[in-house]
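# step 3/5: fold
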Amino acid sequence: MSDYRSERVDRPRDEGLFPARIQEDKKEKQKFTDVPQQDSKMFTATFFHCLKNLFDMFSPSRQLAGKVIDKQAATDNLKQFKQLLKHLTTKDMSSSTDFATELSELWKDLLENFDNIEILERRSLTEVAAFRETMNTIKNYPPDSEYRFGYYLLEQAGKDWLPFPFIEMLKKLYSDHQVDSKRSTLTHWIRKIDMTINHLQHDLPFKKAF
């Protein structure tokens, strides 16, 4: 098991959960702009599934077909995750359950993407290493915290709980960027994501700008 994925543990009891408040907020809150919608995500997943089936039918190498699909799926998920981070650079999203949920769902998709690519790309260590380093960097923020960013994302922060430590992490990411955007953690993450996308895209048959 790669070190990018933290083990699941029981949620601490004193995290400050408020499921009733979350449900009320979700009824009243409008979707923020420039964030991938659930319908779009489902369409993308269906598209890649169908495309992979077509590759399996007509490609002489099913392994090659699967590699192309997995890389493209990872690339698209990284781009969507980056867009959420860019949204956080311009607005404090620490109290948004929709934002936390989108972030958490994309994170879980990226964990699955990495597992698939790690299996297929044992000979291409550069791609695997870049992907792993990006995931570890985000997962382990902040380094001095007992429960870190990746833990709350894996535990689906925003779906049925919004713990205070996670709120504070989002708030700090936003505020630090306002103080020094060029050296902020968000800027660092976005650059690493772009580098990972470049590594994954270099041998794809079709590429989309990011």
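# step 4/5: annotate
Residues 36-201 form one domain.
# step 5/5: archive (pending)
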